[in-house]
Amino acid sequence: MCVADPQLFAAGGGVAGRARPAPSLMAAHWRLDPAVVFLNHGSFGACPTVVAERQRELHALMEREPVRFFVELLEPMLDDARRCAAGIVGADEDGLAFVPNATSGVNTVLRSLTFQPGDELLTNTHEYNACNNALRLVAERFGARVVTASPPFPVRSAQEIVAGILAGVTSRTKLVLLSHVTSPTGLVMPVGPIVEELDRCGIDTLIDGAHAPGMIPLDVRELGCTYYTGNFHKWMCTPKGSAFLWVREDKRAAIRPLAVSHGANSTRTDRSRYRLEFDYVGTFDAAPALCLPEAHRFLSSLVPGGLSGLMDHNRRMTLEARRIMCKGLGVEPPSPESMIGTLASVPLPNPPGGVIRPSRRGYHDRLWDELIERHGVQIPIMPFPPASPGSVAGPQNPQRRLIRVSMQAYNSIAQVEYLVECLREELQRERLGA
């Protein structure tokens, strides 16, 4: 059943009979489906109309004269976009390279490194599955070992996270993969003190900042990490396929793009080998990255205070959304407010029998399906923590799950209140086996 079907939400009401709430007035700048209560900006972002128009202009420019576009025009336009990116994330321009997404950034670093048998690569239970898969692949190639720390959630303080991560460190640890903002739990991790302690121990850090640009103030140089990658197509609202990789200066010589092209043997001396290799990886669509200056201008115009003002606005909305969800579900906030940006995850009751019902639509949970199909609500429901290898779910070992809300400028608190009503109804139907 397609949620865009006009029969599904005739006269402004969902199939369950509730009137659909209005988004914020700023929703007029996006082309989101009006039949959907979209509370899932965090998964893939959403591109504003003015930015999508800029993307079309760039595609038209490229197709009018493709050779001139790639040979003459692309490099200076990438330089302009890179200057904008460097200002947003607090990076030096020479260390910043455009990549399609943060997962590609993580893979780029991991595929460039070498390890020894017995070396340990540390991750944790809050990390993104795709990046953990890349870590496992590289570990298998070299006979290294992936170690998974288990920082708590719910969590009472950032120090519990610091202690939980560092508990996995041993004398064999060579690299730590750490999200700046976690995908399943929505926590802003205390990256600074963790990186500082790991650096003191001579351990490199790869920070997956997929959600950070445009969500929280960011200065990658000040963090002191070895490698940092993050998306622009999430909270900076560029078209899909726009992200960056930053590498500390002393490590740049070892990092190569996933696709090696002409820059590898360029004789140019006006640019570093790192810049030349990453700026051209064969024919690719540069428009998403080139839209960053327009996206930055647009987001900075929405509320007083520019981009910082928008981040503050979205964070306040998220904290209020979490309060409403926790009250509606009868649960305590699972983390301090200081660890929340513009994502917030709230624990849900365990599924009946301890086993999550499989989705019919390709999501994680049948409950996610029901919110879409019966109420037109798009919001992720995710298992957490990830299942241990070989474990069997059931009443004595229930699968646990979270619901994660995202609040962007186009959202309204009325949408969250509607979500809670719908969610309570669906949890009751789930308990009754409906």
Can you offer a commentary on this structure?
This protein is an alpha/beta fold and 434 residues long. The protein has two domains: 10-35 and 306-431, Aspartate Aminotransferase, domain 1, CATH 3.90.1150; 65-296, Type I PLP-dependent aspartate aminotransferase-like (Major domain) (Aspartate Aminotransferase, domain 2), CATH 3.40.640.10. Helix content is 38%, strand content 12%. The protein is built from 14 helices and twelve strands. It has a seven-stranded mixed sheet with strand order 2-8-7-6-5-3-4, sandwiched between helices. Helix 8 (220-223) links the parallel strand 6 (204-208) and strand 7. Helix 12 runs parallel beside helix 14 and helix 13 crosses helix 14 (413-431). The longest helix has 24 residues, at 66-89.
Total count of domains: 2
Shape: globular
The helix/strand order is: EHHHEHEHEHEHEHEEHHHHEHEEEH
Classify the beta-strand content into a percent band: 5-15%
Give the CATH H-level superfamily of the largest domain. Answer: Type I PLP-dependent aspartate aminotransferase-like (Major domain)
**Largest sheet, spatial ordering of strands:** 2-8-7-6-5-3-4
Ranges where pLDDT stays below 50 over 5 or more residues in a row are 1-13
Structural class designation: alpha/beta
